[in-house]
Amino acid sequence: MGERLKGLSAGFKRRRVTIVALVIVVIAAVVTVTLLGRKSSAADFVTAKVELGTVELDVSATGTLQAVTTVQVGSQVSGTVSWLGADFKSRVTQGQVVAKLDPSIFQAQVDNVQASLGNAQAAVEAAQMDINNQQANVAAAQANEEASRVARNDAWDVFNRDKEISNVIAARDLQAAQAQAKQADARLQQATAQIGQAKAALASSTAKLQQAKASVQQATAQLAMAKVNLGYTVIRSPIDGVVVSRSVDVGQTVAASLQAPTLFSIANDLREMQVLASIDEADVGQIHEGMDANFGVDAFPGQQFTGKISQVRLNAQNTQNVVIYTTVINFANPDEKLLPGMTANITIPVAKHENVLLVPNGALRYKPILSDKDQQELQAKMDARRAQREAERQGQGDQSGQQGQQGQQGQQGQQAQPDKPQPDKDASAAPSQSSTGARQHQGGQPGSSDTGDQSGHRRHQGQTPDTTPGAASSGRGRPDSPGGSDQGRRLGPGGGQNPGGSGHGAGSASASQSGGPGQSGGPGQSGGPGGGQRRQGQIIYVLGPDKKLDIRFVRVGITNGRVTEISGRDINEGDTIVIGQNELPSSTNKNSSQNPFQPRPFGGGGGGPRGR
User: Fold this and answer.
1) Is 581 exposed, middle or buried (0-12, 13-18, 19+ CB in 10 A)?
2) Residue 221 half-sphere exposure, CB side, CA atoms within 13 Å?
3) Which of 68, 172, 216, 286 is 20 to 30 A from 437 (CA-CA)?
4) Are 565 and 556 in contact (CB under 8 A)?
5) Higher local confidence (pLDDT), 363 or 523
6) Minimal CA–CA distance to 549: which of 38, 37, 41?
7) What is the rounded distance in angstroms from the CA atom of residue 132 to the CA atom of residue 491?
8) Which residues, including other chains, have CB under 8 Å from residue 31's CB and lie 6 or more apart?
9) Backbone phi, then psi, for 556, in 5-degree steps?
10) What is the DSSP string of 363-418?
């Protein structure tokens, strides 16, 4: 009996374990079915508020700090460093001796040239004495010539007298007198030739004197050069400043044969410095002299320093196929905490919009994950809103046409009655201008069939005009489209540009460089430089009062990479926007993981020019 009871007890325990296991399985199945079948609720969405604030568009760059004036102090002569009078961070003044080279060789050259100069001066004195001697010889030759002339005249007088009394004297005496007269003529010619010889010697002595004087000048110049080279062995500071670097030590030999070696680098004044920023060619059009610039350095994290652009240099540099322009930013460094050579991370504000609506960039990248029914409801809202916009645009177009016809009729009436006073031209042109502006504004509204964000999206995605605007690509957005049961569960942002995605959208570098949100206009297209293009259309998702998704057509402006400026008629401050979603592990989100090789929709981060 006892064994039977034990068997019954064991069987009951086994049944109880089986029943408990079945109950657990049933409960798990019920929970799973409930989770898989429930709709997206407000708790599934990550939301944020539309805020009113200020957004700033910046151009980012890197640069290097340096002193305004930095002098490389070198040596013009070769020699051995014998003394150093300055070291790193030494304060020096203009003319202060900072180094000396061994002067022995240069001093010997000075002594040698001085001896040559003394020799040349002695040669000048000898040449001068020779000139004096030759001048005396010339005077003696001139006196001898005069005596020879007198003797000649006397000899001829004697001959002429003897000739007159030739009948009285002997013929021999007459011949002797004639011979003496001729000898006197020869002696006179000889004396005259001696004068020319003495003058030639005087001229030679004068030339030797000039040569000796030239030798003196040459020796004097050589002496001056030797003294200059001797002076170059003493190296002085050319400016007031601080020694930034020292490249030599005592005993080191410097050679100045081809290029002057650098001994010191001296910065003039570290209280006034500058940053050499490398600006990309796509951003240089937004930069001009006089703009403010902010920068930070790694040595002082969290601190921002300000400066002003003083120069945008024209010499472009090509670095790894990137064209950059050097921009000089001057700034004050009163406490000298910033040092030359530091790397600066620079931001230059080029556009600033205040009191504008701002949304996180995630709101422009968000794509809802919905069930087929929720997707159909959202698509219906989207179509209804587009239809409403189309009707408003057509109504404004009709009104503009009527105003234009009335204006033409009024002009025709004025032409038919020229004697009547003409109305104010500005008043008559106002309706036409307002209607034109309305057409331009409505023609770019997001959600239109052939303009705005959809046309750009179709061109990029290869869609036809009848493609569903709410789909991010072909086959998405409608349950009845091919593959709609799988791919139609994630709605794209209305064919607009997807901020944060790859490609050439508004948040990409190209859009930031061009100055407009995905366009070539200025930043935000409202007062930024280079405006002229309309802002890019975009769709964002909001939570309505019933905690269900609704859509809003907005236009995006500039972005700082975190928040983006938006504008629209049906978006207000404080609206709850969706920036993310807590996806459920159900069949509705099995396509949430995107193929990395699948082309993304055209768009970039933030829907506007990104501040770097």
Assistant:
1) buried
2) 5
3) 286
4) yes
5) 363
6) 41
7) 119
8) none
9) -100, 150
10) HHH---B--HHHHHHHHHHHHHHHHHHHHHHHHHHHHHHHHHHHHHHHHHHHHH-T
Predicted confidence (pLDDT) at residue 473 exceeds the cutoff of 60: no
Mean pLDDT across the chain: 74
Q: Which residues of 538-557 are buried (b: 16+ CB within 10 A; e: fewer)?
A: bbbbbbeeeebbbbbbbbbb
Highest mean pLDDT among 140-144, 214-218, 258-262: 214-218
Enumerate helices (H) and strands (E) in the chain, giving the number of each: 9, 19
Q: Letter for the amino acid at 218?
A: Q
How far does Cα 250 stand from its chain's mean position? 41
* Residue 515: pLDDT band with limits 50, 70, 90: very low
Q: Answer yes or no: are the C-beta atoms of 55 and 609 closer than 8 Å.
A: no
Q: Which residue has the tokens 């005993």?
A: 251
The alpha carbon of residue 97 and the mean position of all alpha carbons in its chain are separated, in whole angstroms, by 38
| Residues 126, 212 contacting (CB under 8 angstroms) | yes
Which residue's entry shows tokens 């269900």? 548
pLDDT for residue 266:
94
Cα 399 off chain centre by: 51
CA distances in angstroms from 190 to 147, 148, 177, listed in the order given = 12, 9, 20
Tokens describing residue 487: 């791919």
Can you tell me the distance from the alpha carbon of 579 to that of 366, in angstroms, rounded to the nearest whole number? Answer: 6
Cα–Cα distance between 220 and 119 in angstroms, integer?
11
Would you say the C-alpha torsion 165, 171, 177, 181 has a positive or negative sign? Answer: positive
Q: Which helix (H) or strand (E) holds 577?
A: strand 576-581
Lookup: tokens for 37: 């079948």
Query: In the prediction, which pLDDT does 427 show?
Result: 35
Q: What is the reported pLDDT for 392?
A: 80
CA torsion sign for 111, 113, 119, 124 is negative
Q: Which of 510, 592, 598 is nearest to 40 (CA)?
A: 592
Give the integer Cα–Cα distance in Å for 376 and 484. 12
DSSP secondary structure of 413-438: HHHH-TTSPPPPHHHHHHHHHHHHHH
- Reported confidence tier of residue 461, pLDDT bands at 50, 70, 90: very low
CB 263 within 8 A of CB 246: yes
Side chain identity at 474, as an amino acid letter?
S
d(CA 509, CA 522): 14
Residue with structure tokens 């002098």? 71
DSSP string covering 142-175, please?
Answer: HHHHHHHHHHHHHHHHHHHHHHHTTTTS-HHHHH
Average pLDDT of span 183-187: 84
pTM: 0.54
**Axis-axis angle for helices 171-232, 104-164 (nearest 10):** 170
What mean pLDDT is predicted for residues 198-215?
90
Q: How far apart are CA 370 and CA 380, in angstroms?
A: 14
Residue 550 to residue 570: CA distance in whole angstroms? 11
pLDDT of 32 > 60? The answer is: yes
Question: Of 151-155, 280-284, 410-414, 416-420, which range is least confident?
Answer: 416-420
Amino acid at 76: Q
Burial class (CB in 10 A: 0-12, 13-18, 19+), 15: exposed
